[in-house]
Amino acid sequence: MNENSQEDPAGAGPRAGGPKRRRFTPAQKLAHVQAYEQALADGDAGAYLRREGLHSASISEWRRLRDAGVLEGKEPGQAVGRPNREQAEIGRLRRQLEVTQNELDQTRTALEIMGKTHALLEQNLQERAGRARAHEALMATHEELTGAGITTREAARLTGISRATAARHGKARPAPTPLDRADPVNRLSCAEREVVLEVLDSPEFVDSTPMQVYATLLERGTYLCSVSTMYRILREDDQVVDRRRQARHPARTVPELVATGPGQVYTWDITKLPGPAKGVYYDAYVMLDIYSRYIVGAIVHARESGPLAEEMMREVFGIHGIPHVVHADRGTSMTSKSVAVLLEDLQVVRSHSRPRVSNDNPYSESLFKTAKYSPTFPERFGSLDDARAWMAEFTEWYNHEHHHSGIGLHTPADVHYGHADQIATDRQATLAAARAAHPERFSTNHAPKILDLPTAAWINQPDDEHDQSTKEDSNPAYEQAA
Known about the structure:
Layout: E1 6-7, E2 22-23, H1 26-41, H2 45-52, H3 56-68, H4 85-127, H5 131-147, H6 152-159, H7 163-168, H8 190-200, H9 210-219, H10 227-236, E3 257-259, E4 265-274, E5 281-289, E6 295-301, H11 306-320, E7 325-328, H12 337-345, E8 349-352, H13 362-372, H14 384-400, H15 412-416, H16 420-437, E9 457-459, H17 465-474, H18 476-481
Parallel strand pairs: 4-7, 7-8
Antiparallel strand pairs: 1-2, 3-9, 4-5, 5-6
Helix pairs in contact: 1-2, 1-3, 3-4, 4-5, 5-6, 11-12
């Protein structure tokens, strides 16, 4: 029951326990009409009627009575009655005034929009080299508005032209008076400038900088000008050019490799593992297949050297076979003679990253981040044996348990040993059964793309097929990898 309504004061009777008729005082009707109009302005009129248990017909009747003035000054319980002819006319005029006021507000809003449109038009015309024509058109509009009785403030708002600009319009500007500037008293004459230029271009000073010339002449008791003036004179004569022998770095070839199966391209790198004390580090030698992401070799030593890298490669090649290409960065172990001789004897193509370009070896860098962000990676390793034990456990987990997002959520071992196709078939059967059981839970009829196994793994993929064919013909590393 609404607290603002009154119950029928009828006493007990045959229908005493049933619903009772609601009654509203004139003040309550006025309050409901005012609240309804506020809700209507807020876009919540329907919710207000339902919340208060009112009908739209009641609100319409109360508004008519309010406009006629028959609700004002009435006491609770006093009969309202029907409005007479005079009151009805007052209500009609009030409604007409309300409509007129709404139209006036809409007209004012339209004028404001027109002013903003003019400002935007002025900006666009100015940006399109029509600034003068746009200004004249807006000034003409401003004059028409003021001539029609519109205030200058309102005309300025509509046209976007300030009142100060409008006041200045049409007034002739005085021509600027040229200033007669005297030459600075410290300026060199033309003859003195020629002398400075001759000294700087003389055989004695032709290879010296102005600062060296300045110091040498001071020691001889001669002052021509300041160092900055010497540079200024040389610059005006187009004689300030960098003549130093700049270092010329040769252009590095971008390594572009592709592997379409396991055992084609191996990449390796060395990362530091923190030892038991500050400043003590162990070196982890890690090699992996870029297609299957399988770690084919991982060993930890107390130092970095070429012979240790050669030893790891011999062990890896003996177990997993000799690849077509071995890629690495340009570290001392990667470019060592022992590693180069081994790869040359085995007819393995060597590929190296460009200097200071870590993106040329992305697979090794990504593997090292996975290792060092692992929850089991300690702050420090207690000994070399601890580091080797942890690396062995991580390698086992990474190869056989880690579902890699880059190879269709397969484990590297499944891809490396050819089990990925059967696993993909089993996954498809599982998804098909789930889709058949609950088709409303699936929006597509194919497996998610994250489960697709890429057909090739790249290091710096060529931009298009033309570049690919060109690099296949000119790059032996690319040819061997493919």
